[in-house]
Design brief:
With about 250 residues, the chain is an alpha/beta fold. It has helices at about 20-30, 45-50, 65-80, 105-130, 150, 155-175, 205-210, 220-230, and strands at about 10-15, 35-40, 55-60, 85-90, 140-145, 180-185, 240-245. The protein has a single domain (about 10-245), classed as NAD(P)-binding Rossmann-like Domain (Rossmann fold), CATH 3.40.50.720. The longest helix is centred in the middle third of the chain and has 28 residues, at about 105-130. The protein is globular. The two termini are about 35 Å apart. The structure holds nicotinamide-adenine-dinucleotide.
């Protein structure tokens, strides 16, 4: 087992489920000390990491509320006094036709996916900037966007707008905080998590989700591997970029 992130402290939001849970486990396997943040208690992720010999701390946090995020960063700072890696993975998806969906749905999606990324990003950069670092040792932020930032999707316009917004935050912060903090995004294609909800889909929709050049939906572990790369030493010349593990759904 390589320990390329040994001694690093990482924060993963959305760590109770899906891509965030797989990412937290992957970073812990690479040796990072991982703070698991989620609106739902991330007990299962915590137990899995501990069973594999990793080190983690769980914090319940709603990323859309400033005070909740402030309490999270107090807990992160109290734990090891520093932050090296932050992964903005918490997110929600709501279907809604523009002419029918309540404005409150739009507001909530923006609050969690975009405002949440902004609040967590701001808190993480503050703590990373205050953390002592050897020359050439850069802080890392990885924001989770989506292939839908590029494609758009009917009846998911609010979600698509948040993910395009996440790319805007990523590129702007990459410029603002270079060279000390590298900020990149991951734009997954369809991934088998509770958010995608393959189990409750009709067979026709399930086929449609897997209708990409690689012929299947992806796994959370495949996204976690991309995030681990962006968090690690091999990505030292990457900032402001978006990596798209999407089965070939979008080719730019
Ligand atoms: N699954 C996919 O097909 C797919 C594709 C592209 C991008 N994404 C993105 O990947 C990220 C992870 O999604 P997933 O598929 O693992 O979904 P998921 O539903 O399995 O996990 C999302 C996690 O975010 C948490 N969360 C929701 N609201 C929160 C809040 N206000 N504060 C803190 N935590 C909150 C949930 O409790 C959950 O644990 C999301 O940003 C999503 O938009 C997913």
């Amino acid at each position: 087992m390589t320990q390329e992130l040994a001694g690093k402290t990482a924060l993963v939001t959305g760590a109770a489920s899906g891509i965030g849970a797989a990412t937290a486990a992957e970073l812990a396997r690479a040796g990072a000390l991982v703070v698991l943040a989620d609106i739902a208690p991330p007990d299962r992720t915590m137990a899995d990491i501990k069973a594999a010999g990793g080190v983690a701390k769980a914090v319940v946090c709603d990323v859309s509320y400033e005070t909740s995020v402030e309490e999270l960063f107090e807990a992160v700072a109290d734990w090891h006094g520093r932050l090296d890696i932050a992964v903005n993975c918490a997110g929600i998806l709501r279907e809604g036709r523009l002419l029918d969906a309540p404005v409150a749905d739009f507001d909530r999606i923006i609050a969690v996916n975009l405002r949440g990324t902004y609040l967590i990003g701001r808190g993480a950069i503050r703590l990373m900037t205050a953390s002592e670092r050897a020359a050439g040792d850069t802080g890392r932020m990885i924001n989770i966007a989506s292939e839908l930032a590029y494609l758009g999707r009917e009846e998911f316009s609010a979600y698509c707008a948040t993910k395009a917004g996440v790319l805007g935050l990523t590129r702007s912060w990459a410029r603002e905080f270079a060279p000390g903090i590298l900020v990149n995004a991951v734009a997954p294609g369809p991934i088998d998590t509770p958010m995608l909800g393959l189990d409750s889909m009709s067979p026709e929709w399930r086929d449609k989700e897997g209708d990409v050049p690689l012929g299947r939906v992806g796994t959370p572990a495949e996204i976690a591997g991309t995030i681990r790369y962006l968090a690690g030493p091999a990505a030292s010349y990457m900032t402001g970029q978006t990596i798209s593990p999407n089965g070939g759904a979008v080719m730019l």
